[in-house]
Specification:
Radius of gyration: 17 Å
Order of helices and strands: HEEEEHEEHHEEE
Structural class: alpha+beta
Distance between the termini: 12 Å
Shape: globular
Largest sheet: 9 strands, antiparallel
Number of helices: 4
Length: about 170
């Protein structure tokens, strides 16, 4: 990691982004067609959880491919420069979680605490499904020339991207 940036600075950026209420979700269909959407989310026990309608294309893609890319991005209104918004991408393995299991109940409670009572309404609908996103690789951008790759939960092991290593890290 570059000596210009300390772990506390990176952890602070990660924490701010994880406090957002929604994420951008990139999925791919069986036909290889990419699809971008968004979903409210909550973190619980090191995983991100989303509650999605079975009618939505991203839900169908997640069921078929069981992988996604997640983007957490700073709001445009608070960004100092629109070209350098703080953002974090995660590669994620995806698993369906039954809503009435111990894990499902705990995840839905975390979502309700963070996102409000609409979670109760949606989780009661038969077409809404709960998904666990297991974060596998993180890429954090905090500004121009300030991009880092790390294993989720291990910001101390971050590697700063440079022209020399950007294609190999």
């Amino acid at each position: 990691m570059s000596e210009q940036y300390d772990v506390a600075e990176l952890q602070s950026a990660v924490t701010r982004l994880q406090q957002l209420d929604s994420l951008v979700l990139a999925t791919v269909g069986q036909d290889g067609e990419p699809h971008a959407s968004y979903a409210p989310f909550a973190e619980h026990d090191g995983y991100l959880y989303v509650l999605l309608s079975g009618l939505a294309l991203h839900t169908q893609n997640l069921q078929q491919q069981q992988q996604a890319n997640v983007l957490l991005i700073e709001d445009e209104a608070s960004a100092r420069n629109i070209f350098a918004r703080a953002r974090m991408n995660y590669a994620a393995a995806v698993m369906t979680v039954e809503k009435d299991t111990t894990e499902g109940i705990a995840a839905l409670e975390a979502m309700k605490t963070k996102l409000g009572n609409t979670v109760d309404v949606l989780s009661g609908l038969p077409d809404f499904m709960l998904f666990r996103l297991q974060l596998e690789k993180a890429r954090l951008v905090t500004g121009f020339g300030r991009a880092f790759v790390f294993t989720p939960g291990d910001v101390a092991g971050a590697v700063q991207l440079t022209e020399k290593n950007a294609k190999t890290v």
